[in-house]
Amino acid sequence: MTGKVSFEAIVARHGPAVLRVCRAVVGAADADDAWSETFLAAMRAYPDLPADANIEAWLVTIAHRKAIDLIRATGRRAMPVGHVPDKAASSHVDVDPDLAAMLAELPPKQKQAVAYHYLAGLPYAEVAAVVGGTPDAARRAAADGMATLRRTYPGRRPTKGAAQ
Amino acid sequence: MTNESDITEALERALPDDPDQLRRLHDRLAVAAQTDGVLDVAYRTVDTPVGALLLAATEIGLVRVAYASEDHEAVIQTLADRISPRVLLAPPRLDGAARELDEYFAGRRQAFDVPLDWRLSAGFRSTVLHHLPEIAYGRTASYAAVAQLTGSPRAVRAVGTACATNPLPVVIPCHRVVRSDGRMGRYLGGAAAKAALLALESAA
Prior knowledge:
The complex is a heterodimer of chains A (164) and B (204). Helix content of chain A is 65%, strand content 0%. Chain A is mainly α and 164 residues long. In chain A, helix 1 (7-26) packs antiparallel against helix 5. The model of chain A is unreliable at 78-94 and 157-164 (pLDDT under 50). Chain B has 204 residues and is of the alpha/beta class. Chain B has two domains: 4-105, Double Stranded RNA Binding Domain, CATH 3.30.160; 123-203, Winged helix-like DNA-binding domain superfamily/Winged helix DNA-binding domain (Arc Repressor Mutant, subunit A, Orthogonal Bundle). Chain B is built from eight helices and six strands, in the order ααβββαβααβααβα. Chain B has helices spanning 4-14, 19-36, 72-82, 95-105, 123-131, 143-149, 156-164, 191-203; strands at residues 41-48, 51-57, 62-67, 87-89, 141-142, 177-178. In chain B, the strands form two sheets. A four-stranded mixed beta sheet of chain B has the order 3-2-1-4, sandwiched between helices. Chain B is elongated and about 75 Å long. The model of chain B has no long low-confidence stretch (mean pLDDT 94). At the A-B interface, helix 1, helix 2, helix 4, helix 5 and helix 7 of A face helix 1, helix 2, helix 3 and strand 4 of B.
């Protein structure tokens, strides 16, 4: 008895959140590769994962490493369009390309903290374990990132002096 | 001031789930896992005249056929528990088994040739199951006759248990084992399924 759910159930349960994280951290163009490498590495290691492990945090940890590898590789290839996701990849009707682009423009630490805390739902202690540093530093990075998004998010920007 | 949940919702809207993309990624994972040798159990379902059948295979061969009445989700979890948790919906490995089942249900196939993985049956039950293909297509044998085949003529009840726990129904023809009084007897896929299989085989 392994006492573990099937890997199919892991993919079904966590695949969407990990994809959101990948798109946030490496951009839409490389998200497929990041997701694929994350889940293949996870499947390889799954039998040895302790039964009581936090699956979401484990997957985000792997995705974080794969994202760093990909960003390094992409950097060496001289990425043509910076971090802005290309239009074709984000053509979904409900997409808010401005916010996705603004997220892409955040400094890496802030972007990662926002993605892992707000998109993957990890507590700051887990975020810190993934990105390094203290939980407080992770909290500050996420707060700074959110402040930038809030300040510049179109249509949601508070009119000066209107809000109390 | 925009509150935090507004921005979080907007972020999730900015990165919407795309079911097609997730399906594509899932299939890509299944292919990569197979290539990488980490796809310990692949499964799919096939629609048949006796309902949806779950088919599962290891690298060795077909390891499980399950009726819908056995609860496919529960069967998948049992495969994860007993064989390996590295289980994925990955139809290509089951292409051969699915094709042979199609041919069988169309009356064009009388025996199965796909490689089998017997690891889910052991001991005397396994011995019994290994003898079942000796009952010819379109014929039946009593539990007592199968006990004779195994060389343990008094193990009639154990033959019943082996049939009731056959991990490879249809392919290993426990449906051809009937009661000595000529009545059909029980079947792990239900009496209707057993009747349908026997009718199919006697018509061909």
